[in-house]
Write a sequence for this structure.
């Protein structure tokens, strides 16, 4: 059975966030209620990654993230004696289930590496120890450009990562708006009917987008949903179908909000 990959976030690859972008207390940009590092941890955990490591992020680490000062200390944080595949990305990357899952299932030559320039580097488990040694030599490779240069010198040109894997970096207010749209699009389901897709879902997504900017939590919204559905029970005998439609319409924004923030598994 293949080893679960490790996601390594490079703090040094992140430019100072634009002052107009909402920021977490540690300075990380916030998108849909979560900092980018929080989102990376939650999404990687749901998609089966073994660990998330923040390299060079002094003062920015979270309890769920292993903070490593340099590449030489990375090997001691590996969860097993077998070296897992490594996925290296800037800490400003928008973690999404789709591309993280695709990367985890992508196979490249054991002695090689693969990259999307300035966004993603992928190392199979077989070449990871040699790569980590190269990245820790002399002056530590702290940003993605230095990582790519060091790996090219050790292994040669990278293989291509499939074009359908297309993560984005969030650095400006315009990037935040694009990131929000990308996250909200994942909440549209193929099973949605005509009314859900063209009426209910667009309304619910806009409500979700605004709720994400408040202090209201998904758990609180789930409680409100439970109370509203319980309160509707006495009226269900009056007209079953309209009540069902109303309950469904009310629950869409709440379920969309819970999914968009990714702050609970499932």
């Amino acid at each position: 059975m293949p080893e679960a990959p490790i996601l390594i976030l490079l703090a040094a690859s992140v430019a100072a966030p634009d002052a107009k972008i909402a920021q977490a207390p540690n300075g990380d940009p916030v998108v849909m209620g979560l900092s980018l590092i929080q989102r990376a941890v939650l999404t990687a955990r749901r998609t089966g990654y073994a660990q998330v490591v923040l390299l060079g992020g002094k003062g920015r680490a979270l309890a769920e993230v292993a903070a490593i000062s340099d590449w030489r200390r990375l090997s001691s944080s590996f969860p097993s004696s077998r070296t897992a595949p490594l996925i290296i990305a800037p800490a400003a990357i928008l973690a999404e289930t789709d591309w993280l899952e695709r990367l985890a299932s992508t196979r490249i030559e054991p002695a090689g590496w693969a990259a999307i320039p300035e966004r993603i580097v992928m190392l199979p488990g077989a070449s990871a120890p040699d790569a980590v040694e190269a990245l820790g030599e002399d002056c530590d490779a702290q940003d993605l450009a230095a990582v790519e240069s060091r790996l090219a010198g050790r292994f040669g040109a990278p293989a291509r990562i499939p074009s359908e894997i297309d993560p984005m970096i969030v650095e400006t207010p315009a990037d935040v708006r694009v990131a929000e749209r990308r996250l909200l699009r994942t909440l549209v389901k193929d099973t949605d009917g005509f009314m859900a897709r063209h009426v209910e879902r667009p309304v619910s997504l806009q409500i979700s987008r605004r709720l994400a900017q408040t202090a209201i939590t998904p758990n609180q919204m789930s409680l409100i949903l439970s109370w509203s559905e319980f309160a509707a029970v006495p009226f269900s005998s009056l007209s079953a179908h309209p009540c069902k439609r109303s309950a469904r319409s009310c629950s869409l924004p709440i379920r969309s909000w819970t999914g968009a923030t990714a702050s609970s598994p499932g």
The first strand starts at residue 6 and ends at 10.
